[in-house]
Amino acid sequence: MAELEGEAGGIAAGEAKAGVGNVAGARRAAFAAPLVEYFLRLGDDRLILGHRMSEWTGHGPILEEDIATANIALDLIGQAAQLLKLAGETEGKGRDENALAYFRDGTLFRNCLLVELPRGDFGHSMVRQFFFDAHSVLLLDEFTRCGHAQLAAIAAKALKEDKYHLRHSSEWVVRLGDGTAESHARVQASVDRLWPYTGEMFVTDEIDVAAQAAGITVDVAGIKSRWDSLVNDVFARATLVRPADGAMQQGGRRGRHTEHIGHLLATMQSVARAHPGATW
Amino acid sequence: MTTFSRDQLFAILGTVPDPEVPVISVVELGIVRDAHQREDGGVEVTITPTYSGCPAMFEIERDVISALEAAGATSVEVKTVLSPAWTTDWIPESAREKLRKYGIAPPGRADDGGLVTLVRAKPPVQCPWCGSRNTSLKSEFGSTACKAIHVCKDCKQPFDEFKAI
User: Fold this and answer.
1) Cβ–Cβ gap B120/A167 under 8 Å
2) Cβ-nearest to B115 among A68, A141, A170
3) How far, in Å, CA of A266 to CA of A263, rounded?
4) pLDDT tens across A19-60, in order?
């Protein structure tokens, strides 16, 4: 933890530390101002998960799910566009949502690791979506009451959408968990594999502290406790076993990603980078 | 310079159909929040998106501009606002009847009874074709972001519901 706390301090200092003439200094210089970092985290979570969800388009197990996953991807990418636009405006350097989505490399993305993992089978995607949706609904609800007007407006809209997402993903977790022996075993394996990636959603650092100055106060402990109850409730109905909380994977918030982010971005950014500035 | 009152501007915008549900206008859909003429003669229209990622917003903006320009307006500017968040509760009864006749069940009340509703508690939606309430939900995600898919067990027809949000 000592190392993480030390590095978080480096992030919070942001560009104040730019120009330090060593590798660590250069790395720190890549961090934006704290509030920009905060909005990038929110936007990148939804952009990357939206892209993962879009991978199901044309590959859904049934037609209705093909349509549902495409709709959910669209909502998430729309939310990401608004949050990244806000990040760009807050930064004030002329970067819009497209510049941030398509012209940043992996180490500059701030999404949590959970959302960048490969989609796996349909059940795996639904488990990941459920973990994320449950957190997102609770978080967005807090944002609707926060002191940052633009974030509150984006959240109020996104919350309506995410409530539908959560109902969809939780229904699938129950249906597959409490389904056949095969579906139960596969979805339990997904839960076990994804669980170590859930902790990062609840980690707070200097960026969250800095956001408070902009009126963004979030009761993370309260969200965690409600998220736990929600997961327990759904798992009970799904006959799934909740894994023990062990060491949690993290790093995405600071640009330390899994190998998967590069592959994802190579696909997601290829058209924009092949034809920069193209319009149609 | 042609002058336009607010009512005149809304009347013009009332002729712009929603690109995905062309039976109702963008005004009836509730996405036009304001329209007024500035002192310099330019026209300013404020719209709000239905869904965060609604791909029709660009087309709507273009349609709004060309309808107003066709009516003689100049320097049309379309602004987008997010707050207050769009709700289907803004769709008037007259437009709901148009939806029904078009084969889309109109939305119920947007209040869905809480932050976390893991089980849809709403009663079955009335079939817009035969009027039966013996229907079942197939999916809360349909052909566009704003629709859900149902099927009528009496007339056996699938149908869209304009999702309450």
Assistant:
1) yes
2) A141
3) 5
4) 334 444 444 448 999 999 999 999 999 999 999 999 999 999
Candidate from B54, B116, B119 with C-beta closest to A137: B116
What is the complex's ipTM, to 2 decimals? 0.91
User: Which residue ranges of chain A lie beneath pLDDT 50?
Assistant: 1-29
How crowded is residue A81: how many other Cβ atoms within 10 Å of its Cβ?
22
The secondary structure of residue A244, as a DSSP letter, is P
> In this structure, are residues B160 and B142 in contact, taking their beta carbons and an 8 Å threshold?
yes
Strand-pair partners of A153: none
Minimal Cα distance from A157: which residue of B? B85
Number of H helices and number of E strands within chain A?
Answer: 13, 0
- A35–B contact, CB cutoff 8 A: no
Quote the pTM value: 0.91
Residue A25's pLDDT is: 41
Q: Are A128 and A117 in contact (CB under 8 A)?
A: yes
Alpha carbon distances (Å) from A195 to A45, A46, A127? 17, 19, 10
For residue B111, give the chain A residue with the closest CA. Answer: A160
Rounded CA separation B60/B58 (Å)? 5
Could you give the percent of chain A with pLDDT greater than 90?
87
Mutate to test the interface with B, among A160, A167, A173, A175 (most CBs of B within 10 A): A160
Q: How many residues can be counted in chain B?
A: 165
Output the six-digit token pair for A179: 């389904």
